[in-house]
Amino acid sequence: MNTQKIIFSGVQPTGNLHLGNYLGAIKQWVNLQKVYDCIFCVVDYHAITVRQNPDQLRRQVLDTAKIYLACGINPKKSLIFRQSDINEHAELAWILNCTGARMSDLENMTQYKDKAGKDANASVGLFDYPVLMAADILLYQTNLVPVGHDQVQHLELTRDLAKRFNHDFGQVFTIPEVQLQKTGARIMGLDDPTKKMSKSAASPANFIALTDEPEVARKKIMRAVTDSGAEVIYDPETKPAISNLLTIYHLLSGIDIKTLVKKYQGRGYGDFKKDLAEVVAEFLTDFQAKLERFSDEEVEKIFARGAKKLKPIAKETVKNVKEKLGLL
Ligand code: ATP
Ligand code: LTN
């Protein structure tokens, strides 16, 4: 690693990765890797905060890395690794639990409130999830964290934990910044444009999975809810559904939203959706062809290389932390 900015991000190997994950997070990783040193993690320790089937988890860890590769992450430029291969993630999370994380911080996390609700059987890991995320980021002296909008609150906590540690025990951590897409940081559900597109949505009509058959995706677009009226207008406040579809169209085609609005002036939702369905189907056909090219063995090698390069950096950070605390 040299002295230029370090980028870190990750996705959980759970469920179907969808267009929201791609357009909100992974797409910006692809651009950032052209300029910066990037580290992309498959966060399997985060995945086990809710119960997973072991065989399925093993499969999804490999498949998630394949998705990174098919999206355009170049393993020769960027490091890709499996979180549980570097035990310092769990070790630093424990330390941050003790040195900076407060019950009140974690109780305020909206993701936890959404996922655990009032379930008294929710795991302690689910509650502590943001502290593990902070450890992921802080281990590598990360400068920028490209994620979707739903992760902003977790990033704020990460910054607070880093600042508290540096202040209370001495300078160790770089304070990271969040990096959001200008458009697309919050892709909304196709069945409900007031909520974000989500892997754990109740209905598959909510999302377009990156592994959906192009024909299935086409139907999901045609059936996506629309707003009252019939005009293709971009206004997320009053026309959230069509604005969301316009955003997806823009990000997949590269055509700007203004041009799209002009193109569909006076033509109504039907024509617009038919064309968007085509754009989405083409994207998926191309993406899925790329996905097929990667083998499990190749991914294992990429993981091994990532862990080998990153382990010494993680070790060094934990050593510095332990020294400050009197553990070394
Ligand atoms: P779930 O909804 O089940 O919590 P998820 O779809 O949010 O899962 P994650 O693994 O938590 O998936 O997110 C991976 C990345 O994708 C994160 O950077 C997250 O911010 C981003 N992301 C997730 N959903 C969206 C969305 N609807 N729009 C934009 N970015 C998103
Ligand atoms: N919580 C993130 C996944 C994640 C992450 C990270 C993202 C875990 N560790 C570190 C960026 C940096 C999510 O998307 N649900």
Explain what you see.
- A three-stranded parallel beta sheet has the order 1-2-3. It has a two-stranded parallel sheet with strand order 4-5.
- It contains 13 helices and five strands.
- Helix 1 (19-32) links the parallel strand 1 and strand 2.
- By secondary structure, the protein is mainly alpha-helical.
- The protein is 55% helix and 7% strand.
- Helix 3 crosses helix 12 and helix 10 (240-253) crosses helix 12.
- It folds into two domains: 6-180 and 296-325, HUPs (Rossmann fold), CATH 3.40.50.620; 204-290, Tyrosyl-Transfer RNA Synthetase (Orthogonal Bundle).
- The mean pLDDT is 96.
- The two termini are 26 Å apart.
- The chain is globular and about 70 Å long.
- It has helices spanning 19-32, 44-47, 54-71, 88-99, 103-107, 110-116, 124-139, 152-169, 214-223, 240-253, 257-263, 268-291, 296-325, and strands spanning 6-11, 37-42, 79-82, 144-146, 177-179.
- Bound molecules: adenosine-5'-triphosphate and L-tryptophanamide.
- L-tryptophanamide binds next to strand 1 and helix 7.
Number of β-strand runs: 5
CATH class categorisation of the largest domain: Alpha Beta
Low-confidence segments: none
* Secondary-structure content class: mainly alpha
Shape: globular
- CATH topology value of the largest domain: Rossmann fold
Strand line-up in the sheet with most strands: 1-2-3
Q: Considering the protein shown, what is the CATH homologous superfamily of the largest domain?
A: HUPs
Bound molecules: adenosine-5'-triphosphate, L-tryptophanamide
